[in-house]
Specification:
The chain is mainly alpha-helical. It contains seven helices and two strands. The relative contact order is 0.12.
Amino acid sequence: MTTSAGSAPEPPATDRAGEPAERLGMAGRRAVQAALDWALAVGVGVFAGLVAGLIAIPLAQWGWVPPKVILWAPAITFLAVTQACDIVIQIWVPVRRGGITPGMLVMGLRVQTLRGGQPKARAYLIRWVLLTVDGLLLGLVAVVSIVATKRQQRIGDLVARTLVVRADVSRREPGTAP
């Protein structure tokens, strides 16, 4: 593209506020963060399901429980523990750790209110409940919402009145891990 002699060149795409590439970058960071948090919950659930299976097999062989328990105990344990871990990761950990889940810690993100403060537990609960909506179509609803909204919020953030922003490393207390 050419410019006339007296006009300034157009700023690069990364310098313009609200650039789609920047929005997609945040959506990508949040997608990776969500995948990391979910992988942690599923990993703990798989481990618990394996332990339940290892306990159920001898109990069934000794005749203390019906053989169907070998199938159902690990499956139910996996689902219950994965759900419990997801609740802990999405609600309890951010309340206790300044709005940061394990995945957010890795990706350098944190949750804050629209005014910049620490959200209450109720806001995290709302965000967690609305993950079911945001997760529709393999997370496409959340990605479209993040890219389309002015403050890059998913539906859970809009309802809970929260934002996910880059974590400010300089605000950490001395001696704390990044």
